[in-house]
User: Which sequence fits this backbone?
Protein backbone atom coordinates (compact mmCIF):
# COMPACT_ATOMS: atom_id res chain seq x y z
CA UNK A 1 0.00 0.00 0.00
CA UNK A 2 1.25 3.50 -0.83
CA UNK A 3 1.58 6.07 1.98
CA UNK A 4 -0.18 8.50 -0.24
CA UNK A 5 -2.47 8.48 -3.27
CA UNK A 6 -2.73 11.45 -5.58
CA UNK A 7 -5.76 11.31 -7.89
CA UNK A 8 -4.97 13.56 -10.85
CA UNK A 9 -1.54 14.25 -12.33
CA UNK A 10 -1.91 17.77 -13.68
CA UNK A 11 0.41 20.48 -12.41
CA UNK A 12 -1.14 20.51 -8.93
CA UNK A 13 -1.02 16.74 -8.46
CA UNK A 14 2.52 16.33 -9.83
CA UNK A 15 3.99 19.16 -7.76
CA UNK A 16 2.23 17.77 -4.68
CA UNK A 17 3.65 14.31 -5.42
CA UNK A 18 7.12 15.85 -5.62
CA UNK A 19 6.63 17.48 -2.22
CA UNK A 20 5.56 14.12 -0.77
CA UNK A 21 8.56 12.26 -2.19
CA UNK A 22 10.77 14.96 -0.65
CA UNK A 23 9.27 13.88 2.68
CA UNK A 24 10.15 10.24 2.01
CA UNK A 25 6.59 9.05 1.24
CA UNK A 26 5.72 6.18 -1.12
CA UNK A 27 3.38 7.80 -3.61
CA UNK A 28 0.99 6.48 -6.26
CA UNK A 29 -0.42 8.94 -8.79
CA UNK A 30 -3.68 7.85 -10.44
CA UNK A 31 -3.85 9.81 -13.65
CA UNK A 32 -5.76 9.09 -16.84
CA UNK A 33 -4.82 11.93 -19.21
CA UNK A 34 -5.89 10.00 -22.32
CA UNK A 35 -9.45 9.84 -20.93
CA UNK A 36 -9.43 13.23 -19.13
CA UNK A 37 -7.18 15.76 -20.94
CA UNK A 38 -5.45 17.95 -18.35
CA UNK A 39 -5.84 21.73 -18.37
CA UNK A 40 -2.20 21.91 -17.34
CA UNK A 41 -1.05 20.87 -20.83
CA UNK A 42 -3.38 23.33 -22.53
CA UNK A 43 -2.65 26.45 -20.48
CA UNK A 44 -0.52 29.40 -21.53
CA UNK A 45 1.88 29.51 -18.61
CA UNK A 46 1.73 33.20 -17.70
CA UNK A 47 3.19 33.36 -14.20
CA UNK A 48 0.79 35.97 -12.92
CA UNK A 49 -2.96 36.14 -12.55
CA UNK A 50 -4.41 38.28 -15.35
CA UNK A 51 -4.72 41.80 -13.91
CA UNK A 52 -3.42 40.50 -10.59
CA UNK A 53 -4.46 43.61 -8.63
CA UNK A 54 -8.10 42.65 -9.14
CA UNK A 55 -7.56 39.51 -7.07
CA UNK A 56 -7.79 39.13 -3.28
CA UNK A 57 -4.74 38.55 -1.10
CA UNK A 58 -5.55 34.83 -0.86
CA UNK A 59 -4.69 34.47 -4.56
CA UNK A 60 -1.73 36.84 -4.55
CA UNK A 61 -0.18 34.97 -1.63
CA UNK A 62 -0.21 31.82 -3.79
CA UNK A 63 1.20 33.48 -6.88
CA UNK A 64 3.54 36.35 -6.14
CA UNK A 65 6.67 34.22 -5.78
CA UNK A 66 5.81 31.80 -8.62
CA UNK A 67 8.67 32.88 -10.95
CA UNK A 68 11.20 32.19 -8.19
CA UNK A 69 9.59 28.87 -7.27
CA UNK A 70 9.64 27.72 -10.90
CA UNK A 71 13.23 28.91 -11.35
CA UNK A 72 14.25 26.71 -8.42
CA UNK A 73 12.22 23.80 -9.79
CA UNK A 74 13.82 24.09 -13.23
CA UNK A 75 17.27 24.17 -11.67
CA UNK A 76 16.33 20.97 -9.92
CA UNK A 77 14.76 19.21 -12.94
CA UNK A 78 17.05 20.63 -15.65
CA UNK A 79 17.87 18.04 -18.34
CA UNK A 80 14.91 15.76 -17.58
CA UNK A 81 12.69 15.27 -20.64
CA UNK A 82 14.68 17.99 -22.40
CA UNK A 83 13.88 20.71 -19.83
CA UNK A 84 16.16 23.74 -20.23
CA UNK A 85 16.52 27.02 -18.32
CA UNK A 86 14.79 28.93 -21.15
CA UNK A 87 11.59 26.96 -20.54
CA UNK A 88 11.02 29.63 -17.92
CA UNK A 89 11.12 32.62 -20.27
CA UNK A 90 11.98 35.75 -18.31
CA UNK A 91 10.13 37.87 -20.82
CA UNK A 92 8.44 40.27 -18.42
CA UNK A 93 4.75 41.10 -18.63
CA UNK A 94 3.28 44.20 -20.24
CA UNK A 95 -0.36 44.88 -19.31
CA UNK A 96 -2.68 47.31 -21.11
CA UNK A 97 -4.48 49.72 -18.79
CA UNK A 98 -7.35 51.79 -20.07
CA UNK A 99 -7.94 54.17 -17.15
CA UNK A 100 -5.86 56.22 -14.73
CA UNK A 101 -7.47 54.30 -11.88
CA UNK A 102 -6.36 50.95 -13.33
CA UNK A 103 -2.81 52.23 -13.68
CA UNK A 104 -2.82 53.52 -10.10
CA UNK A 105 -4.18 50.17 -8.87
CA UNK A 106 -1.51 48.27 -10.79
CA UNK A 107 1.32 50.42 -9.44
CA UNK A 108 -0.02 50.26 -5.87
CA UNK A 109 -0.29 46.47 -6.17
CA UNK A 110 3.33 46.25 -7.37
CA UNK A 111 4.54 48.38 -4.45
CA UNK A 112 2.55 46.29 -1.99
CA UNK A 113 4.00 42.99 -3.29
CA UNK A 114 7.47 44.49 -3.87
CA UNK A 115 7.57 43.91 -7.62
CA UNK A 116 9.30 46.28 -10.03
CA UNK A 117 6.78 48.06 -12.25
CA UNK A 118 6.77 51.11 -14.50
CA UNK A 119 4.22 52.94 -16.62
CA UNK A 120 5.10 52.35 -20.27
CA UNK A 121 3.43 52.71 -23.63
CA UNK A 122 3.60 49.52 -25.65
CA UNK A 123 5.54 51.24 -28.45
CA UNK A 124 8.46 51.70 -26.02
CA UNK A 125 8.76 47.94 -25.65
CA UNK A 126 7.40 46.65 -28.95
CA UNK A 127 7.28 49.19 -31.79
CA UNK A 128 5.59 46.69 -34.13
CA UNK A 129 2.53 46.30 -31.91
CA UNK A 130 -0.58 48.48 -31.89
CA UNK A 131 0.33 51.22 -29.42
CA UNK A 132 -1.51 51.43 -26.08
CA UNK A 133 -1.03 52.68 -22.55
CA UNK A 134 0.14 50.17 -20.02
CA UNK A 135 2.32 49.00 -17.19
CA UNK A 136 5.43 46.84 -17.40
CA UNK A 137 6.49 44.18 -14.92
CA UNK A 138 10.05 43.11 -15.83
CA UNK A 139 10.28 40.20 -13.38
CA UNK A 140 7.09 38.35 -14.33
CA UNK A 141 7.79 35.45 -16.65
CA UNK A 142 6.11 32.63 -18.55
CA UNK A 143 6.50 28.91 -18.38
CA UNK A 144 6.60 26.27 -21.10
CA UNK A 145 4.19 24.13 -19.14
CA UNK A 146 4.11 20.92 -21.25
CA UNK A 147 7.89 20.61 -20.82
CA UNK A 148 7.74 21.06 -17.07
CA UNK A 149 4.98 18.45 -16.80
CA UNK A 150 7.07 15.92 -18.76
CA UNK A 151 10.12 16.67 -16.62
CA UNK A 152 8.09 16.29 -13.43
CA UNK A 153 6.75 12.91 -14.52
CA UNK A 154 10.26 11.75 -15.43
CA UNK A 155 11.63 12.92 -12.09
CA UNK A 156 8.82 11.30 -10.10
CA UNK A 157 9.18 7.99 -11.97
CA UNK A 158 12.91 8.01 -11.23
CA UNK A 159 12.09 8.59 -7.55
CA UNK A 160 9.90 5.46 -7.47
CA UNK A 161 6.46 7.04 -7.81
CA UNK A 162 3.97 4.62 -9.37
CA UNK A 163 1.74 6.00 -12.13
CA UNK A 164 -1.63 4.29 -12.56
CA UNK A 165 -3.32 5.22 -15.86
CA UNK A 166 -6.70 3.57 -15.23
CA UNK A 167 -9.41 6.14 -14.43
CA UNK A 168 -10.59 6.43 -10.83
CA UNK A 169 -14.35 6.01 -10.57
CA UNK A 170 -15.09 6.56 -6.87
CA UNK A 171 -13.54 7.42 -3.53
CA UNK A 172 -14.74 5.61 -0.37
CA UNK A 173 -13.61 6.76 3.08
CA UNK A 174 -11.87 4.10 5.20
CA UNK A 175 -12.37 3.62 8.91
CA UNK A 176 -9.28 5.09 10.57
CA UNK A 177 -8.68 7.66 7.83
CA UNK A 178 -7.83 7.89 4.17
CA UNK A 179 -9.77 6.23 1.40
CA UNK A 180 -10.09 3.42 -1.11
CA UNK A 181 -10.14 4.59 -4.68
CA UNK A 182 -11.99 2.28 -7.07
CA UNK A 183 -10.55 2.07 -10.58
CA UNK A 184 -12.51 1.58 -13.80
CA UNK A 185 -11.12 -1.96 -14.25
CA UNK A 186 -12.41 -3.13 -10.85
CA UNK A 187 -9.13 -2.81 -8.91
CA UNK A 188 -8.79 -0.63 -5.81
CA UNK A 189 -5.98 1.55 -4.46
CA UNK A 190 -5.93 2.41 -0.76
CA UNK A 191 -3.92 4.81 1.36
CA UNK A 192 -4.18 6.56 4.72
CA UNK A 193 -3.80 9.91 2.95
CA UNK A 194 -5.40 10.76 -0.38
CA UNK A 195 -5.24 13.96 -2.41
CA UNK A 196 -7.92 14.62 -5.02
CA UNK A 197 -6.40 16.97 -7.60
CA UNK A 198 -8.39 15.91 -10.64
CA UNK A 199 -8.96 19.37 -12.13
CA UNK A 200 -12.45 19.90 -13.57
CA UNK A 201 -13.31 16.27 -12.75
CA UNK A 202 -12.72 16.58 -8.98
CA UNK A 203 -16.34 17.55 -8.19
CA UNK A 204 -17.52 14.26 -9.74
CA UNK A 205 -15.35 12.28 -7.31
CA UNK A 206 -16.12 14.46 -4.29
CA UNK A 207 -19.87 15.06 -4.55
CA UNK A 208 -20.67 11.57 -3.17
CA UNK A 209 -18.60 12.57 -0.09
CA UNK A 210 -21.01 15.45 0.56
CA UNK A 211 -18.96 18.21 -1.01
CA UNK A 212 -20.98 20.77 -2.95
CA UNK A 213 -18.98 23.84 -3.97
CA UNK A 214 -19.40 26.40 -6.78
CA UNK A 215 -17.12 24.60 -9.26
CA UNK A 216 -17.66 24.36 -13.02
CA UNK A 217 -15.78 23.59 -16.24
CA UNK A 218 -14.49 26.54 -18.23
CA UNK A 219 -13.27 25.93 -21.76
CA UNK A 220 -10.41 27.89 -23.29
CA UNK A 221 -8.89 27.77 -26.77
CA UNK A 222 -5.37 28.80 -27.82
CA UNK A 223 -3.41 29.33 -31.04
CA UNK A 224 0.31 28.96 -31.63
CA UNK A 225 2.30 30.97 -34.17
CA UNK A 226 5.94 30.48 -35.12
CA UNK A 227 7.90 33.72 -35.40
CA UNK A 228 11.57 34.66 -35.20
CA UNK A 229 12.77 34.45 -31.57
CA UNK A 230 12.45 37.84 -29.85
CA UNK A 231 9.89 39.23 -32.32
CA UNK A 232 7.41 39.34 -29.43
CA UNK A 233 9.73 40.35 -26.59
CA UNK A 234 7.27 40.28 -23.67
CA UNK A 235 3.98 38.75 -22.59
CA UNK A 236 1.43 41.22 -23.86
CA UNK A 237 -1.85 41.23 -21.94
CA UNK A 238 -4.99 43.19 -22.78
CA UNK A 239 -8.67 42.89 -21.85
CA UNK A 240 -9.24 41.28 -25.27
CA UNK A 241 -6.56 38.59 -24.98
CA UNK A 242 -2.84 37.99 -24.76
CA UNK A 243 0.31 36.94 -26.61
CA UNK A 244 2.88 34.76 -24.84
CA UNK A 245 6.38 34.45 -26.34
CA UNK A 246 8.46 31.33 -25.75
CA UNK A 247 12.23 31.58 -26.01
CA UNK A 248 12.32 29.63 -29.31
CA UNK A 249 10.02 32.06 -31.17
CA UNK A 250 6.73 30.23 -30.57
CA UNK A 251 4.00 32.73 -29.70
CA UNK A 252 0.77 31.61 -28.04
CA UNK A 253 -2.39 33.65 -28.57
CA UNK A 254 -5.14 33.17 -26.04
CA UNK A 255 -7.58 32.60 -24.86
CA UNK A 256 -11.27 32.11 -25.24
CA UNK A 257 -13.29 31.67 -22.04
CA UNK A 258 -16.53 29.70 -21.98
CA UNK A 259 -17.76 28.93 -18.49
CA UNK A 260 -19.94 25.82 -18.30
CA UNK A 261 -18.46 24.22 -21.44
CA UNK A 262 -16.61 20.95 -20.77
CA UNK A 263 -15.84 20.00 -24.39
CA UNK A 264 -12.17 19.62 -25.27
CA UNK A 265 -12.19 20.24 -29.03
CA UNK A 266 -11.08 23.47 -30.74
CA UNK A 267 -13.74 25.28 -32.77
CA UNK A 268 -13.83 27.38 -35.95
CA UNK A 269 -15.39 30.41 -34.15
CA UNK A 270 -12.73 30.06 -31.47
CA UNK A 271 -9.99 30.16 -34.08
CA UNK A 272 -11.50 33.19 -35.82
CA UNK A 273 -11.85 35.07 -32.55
CA UNK A 274 -8.25 34.35 -31.57
CA UNK A 275 -6.84 35.22 -35.01
CA UNK A 276 -8.70 38.53 -34.92
CA UNK A 277 -7.53 39.28 -31.39
CA UNK A 278 -3.91 38.35 -32.20
CA UNK A 279 -3.86 40.61 -35.28
CA UNK A 280 -5.36 43.47 -33.27
CA UNK A 281 -2.42 43.26 -30.86
CA UNK A 282 0.30 42.66 -33.45
CA UNK A 283 -0.89 43.57 -36.99
CA UNK A 284 1.87 41.43 -38.59
CA UNK A 285 0.08 38.33 -37.29
CA UNK A 286 -2.71 38.92 -39.83
CA UNK A 287 -0.27 37.59 -42.43
CA UNK A 288 0.78 34.52 -40.40
CA UNK A 289 -0.97 31.15 -40.19
CA UNK A 290 -1.18 29.60 -36.75
CA UNK A 291 0.63 26.24 -36.70
CA UNK A 292 -1.48 24.79 -33.92
CA UNK A 293 -4.90 25.29 -32.29
CA UNK A 294 -6.14 23.48 -29.18
CA UNK A 295 -8.63 23.64 -26.33
CA UNK A 296 -8.50 22.81 -22.64
CA UNK A 297 -10.95 22.93 -19.78
CA UNK A 298 -10.10 24.89 -16.65
CA UNK A 299 -11.32 23.86 -13.21
CA UNK A 300 -13.58 26.89 -12.82
CA UNK A 301 -14.53 28.30 -9.44
CA UNK A 302 -17.14 30.73 -8.16
CA UNK A 303 -14.55 32.58 -6.08
CA UNK A 304 -11.21 34.09 -7.05
CA UNK A 305 -8.91 31.64 -5.28
CA UNK A 306 -8.80 27.85 -4.93
CA UNK A 307 -10.00 25.51 -2.20
CA UNK A 308 -7.12 23.58 -0.62
CA UNK A 309 -7.52 21.36 2.40
CA UNK A 310 -9.12 18.38 4.06
CA UNK A 311 -12.57 17.30 2.92
CA UNK A 312 -14.85 18.06 5.89
CA UNK A 313 -15.90 14.89 7.70
CA UNK A 314 -13.48 12.67 5.74
CA UNK A 315 -10.20 12.51 7.68
CA UNK A 316 -7.15 11.88 5.55
CA UNK A 317 -8.80 12.91 2.27
CA UNK A 318 -7.71 16.29 0.92
CA UNK A 319 -8.66 18.24 -2.18
CA UNK A 320 -7.22 20.91 -4.45
CA UNK A 321 -10.12 22.53 -6.26
CA UNK A 322 -10.96 25.45 -8.52
CA UNK A 323 -7.58 26.71 -9.71
CA UNK A 324 -9.51 28.10 -12.68
CA UNK A 325 -7.41 30.53 -14.79
CA UNK A 326 -4.44 30.51 -12.41
CA UNK A 327 -3.51 26.91 -11.75
CA UNK A 328 -0.08 27.02 -13.33
CA UNK A 329 1.05 30.13 -11.49
CA UNK A 330 -0.41 29.05 -8.14
CA UNK A 331 0.46 25.33 -8.24
CA UNK A 332 3.88 25.43 -6.52
CA UNK A 333 2.55 27.30 -3.48
CA UNK A 334 -0.67 25.24 -3.48
CA UNK A 335 1.37 22.02 -3.46
CA UNK A 336 3.61 23.30 -0.66
CA UNK A 337 0.56 24.19 1.44
CA UNK A 338 -1.15 20.84 0.82
CA UNK A 339 1.98 18.81 1.51
CA UNK A 340 2.54 20.62 4.80
CA UNK A 341 -1.09 20.12 5.86
CA UNK A 342 -1.08 16.44 4.90
CA UNK A 343 2.22 15.88 6.72
CA UNK A 344 1.13 17.56 9.95
CA UNK A 345 3.57 20.45 9.45
CA UNK A 346 2.97 24.14 9.90
CA UNK A 347 2.20 25.53 6.42
CA UNK A 348 3.77 28.70 5.05
CA UNK A 349 0.32 30.25 4.50
CA UNK A 350 -2.74 30.45 6.74
CA UNK A 351 -4.71 27.32 5.76
CA UNK A 352 -7.98 28.88 6.93
CA UNK A 353 -7.91 31.10 3.83
CA UNK A 354 -8.22 28.05 1.58
CA UNK A 355 -10.11 25.53 3.75
CA UNK A 356 -13.05 23.63 2.29
CA UNK A 357 -16.25 24.68 4.06
CA UNK A 358 -18.35 22.00 5.73
CA UNK A 359 -21.76 21.64 4.10
CA UNK A 360 -23.46 23.19 7.15
CA UNK A 361 -21.33 26.38 7.07
C1 LIG B 1 -6.52 27.90 -22.53
C2 LIG B 1 -6.01 27.95 -21.11
C3 LIG B 1 -5.04 28.89 -20.76
C4 LIG B 1 -4.55 28.93 -19.45
N1 LIG B 1 -3.54 29.79 -19.14
C5 LIG B 1 -3.02 29.81 -17.90
C6 LIG B 1 -1.94 30.66 -17.58
O1 LIG B 1 -1.41 31.38 -18.44
N2 LIG B 1 -1.46 30.68 -16.30
C7 LIG B 1 -2.01 29.90 -15.33
O2 LIG B 1 -1.56 29.96 -14.19
N3 LIG B 1 -3.03 29.05 -15.61
C8 LIG B 1 -3.55 29.00 -16.87
N4 LIG B 1 -4.59 28.17 -17.16
C9 LIG B 1 -5.24 27.42 -16.07
C10 LIG B 1 -4.45 26.19 -15.69
O3 LIG B 1 -4.09 25.47 -16.85
C11 LIG B 1 -5.30 25.31 -14.75
O4 LIG B 1 -5.80 26.07 -13.68
C12 LIG B 1 -4.44 24.20 -14.15
O5 LIG B 1 -3.76 23.52 -15.17
C13 LIG B 1 -5.27 23.22 -13.35
O6 LIG B 1 -4.41 22.20 -12.91
P1 LIG B 1 -4.96 20.91 -12.16
O7 LIG B 1 -3.77 20.09 -11.84
O8 LIG B 1 -5.87 21.34 -11.06
O9 LIG B 1 -5.90 20.18 -13.23
P2 LIG B 1 -5.55 19.43 -14.60
O10 LIG B 1 -4.35 19.97 -15.24
O11 LIG B 1 -6.81 19.42 -15.40
O12 LIG B 1 -5.18 17.97 -14.15
C14 LIG B 1 -6.16 17.06 -13.68
C15 LIG B 1 -5.64 15.65 -13.95
O13 LIG B 1 -6.53 14.73 -13.32
C16 LIG B 1 -6.72 13.63 -14.19
N5 LIG B 1 -8.02 13.03 -13.86
C17 LIG B 1 -9.21 13.65 -13.77
N6 LIG B 1 -10.17 12.79 -13.39
C18 LIG B 1 -9.56 11.60 -13.24
C19 LIG B 1 -10.02 10.32 -12.86
N7 LIG B 1 -11.30 10.08 -12.54
N8 LIG B 1 -9.12 9.30 -12.83
C20 LIG B 1 -7.81 9.51 -13.13
N9 LIG B 1 -7.33 10.73 -13.50
C21 LIG B 1 -8.19 11.75 -13.54
C22 LIG B 1 -6.69 14.21 -15.59
O14 LIG B 1 -6.35 13.23 -16.54
C23 LIG B 1 -5.61 15.29 -15.42
O15 LIG B 1 -4.34 14.77 -15.75
C24 LIG B 1 -5.07 28.05 -18.47
C25 LIG B 1 -6.02 27.09 -18.83
C26 LIG B 1 -6.48 27.03 -20.14
C27 LIG B 1 -7.48 25.97 -20.52
Assistant:
Amino acid sequence: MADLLVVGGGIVGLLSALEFTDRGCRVTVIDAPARFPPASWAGGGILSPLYAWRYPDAMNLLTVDAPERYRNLITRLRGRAGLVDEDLNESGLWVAVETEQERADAMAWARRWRLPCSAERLSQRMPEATDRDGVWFPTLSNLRNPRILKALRACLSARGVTFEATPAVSVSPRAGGGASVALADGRECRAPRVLISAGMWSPRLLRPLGLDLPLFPSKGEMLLYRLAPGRVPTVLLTEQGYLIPRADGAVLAGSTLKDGDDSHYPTVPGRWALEKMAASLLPALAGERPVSHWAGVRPGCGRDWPYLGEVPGVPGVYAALGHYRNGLVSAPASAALLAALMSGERPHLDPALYALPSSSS
In short: The two ends are 35 Å apart (CA to CA). The chain is about 30% helix and 25% strand. Residues 90-140+216-301 form a domain with the D-Amino Acid Oxidase; Chain A, domain 2 fold (CATH 3.30.9.10).
